[in-house]
UniProtKB/TrEMBL annotation:
Sample GO molecular function, one term: catalytic activity
PANTHER family tied to this protein: REVERSE TRANSCRIPTASE DOMAIN-CONTAINING PROTEIN, TRANSCRIPTASE, PUTATIVE-RELATED-RELATED
Protein name according to UniProt: Endonuclease/exonuclease/phosphatase domain-containing protein
GO biological process: cell adhesion involved in heart morphogenesis; larval heart development
Ranges for domain Endonuclease/exonuclease/phosphatase: 3-99
Domain of life of the organism encoding this protein: Eukaryota
GO CC aspect terms: extracellular matrix
Length: 143
């Protein structure tokens, strides 16, 4: 958690748009209420640290349906709620976690290809700078 805090604290001001997602594995942290239930003191301190980090970075957790069993443990934090178009959690045969399908409002800008021309011409001999070091006669004799 401390590495996450350092990473977020190192971002320039104003902060860029942040999308942070992963399996945080806090089944005892209930979303969206942010209520801690039935956790050990170590788990509780880690969860409180996470909540402190997201609060200080102005992040909001937006997954509101179970991602594993009845728990929301795969989380998505953002600092711009307009960035997310839709989210769904779907069962999959590949994992005991539901598959999160997250669609953003970001669109890839297609730039035209850059065309460059080379004005300098290289002779073919300069392409193989080891050519003069090869014993071509010996190679030819061995063939």
């Amino acid at each position: 958690m401390e590495a996450l805090r350092q990473l977020l604290d190192s971002l320039p001001t104003p902060a860029p748009e942040i999308i942070l997602t992963g399996d945080f594995n806090f089944p005892f942290l209930k979303w969206p209420e942010r209520i801690l239930t039935g956790s050990t003191s170590t788990e509780k301190s880690q969860a409180k640290l996470l909540l402190d980090i997201i609060n200080s970075s102005f992040l909001v957790q937006v997954i509101n349906e179970p991602t594993r069993g009845k728990n929301i443990i795969d989380l998505l934090f953002i600092n711009n709620s307009d960035a997310i178009d839709s989210i769904s959690a779907e069962k999959t045969i590949y994992s005991d976690h539901n598959l999160l399908r997250i669609f953003t409002n970001y669109r890839k800008t297609m730039l035209p290809p850059t065309v460059t021309s080379r004005t300098e011409k290289n002779p073919f001999s300069s392409l193989n700078f080891f050519s003069s070091q090869v014993n071509w006669e010996r190679i030819n004799d061995q063939m």
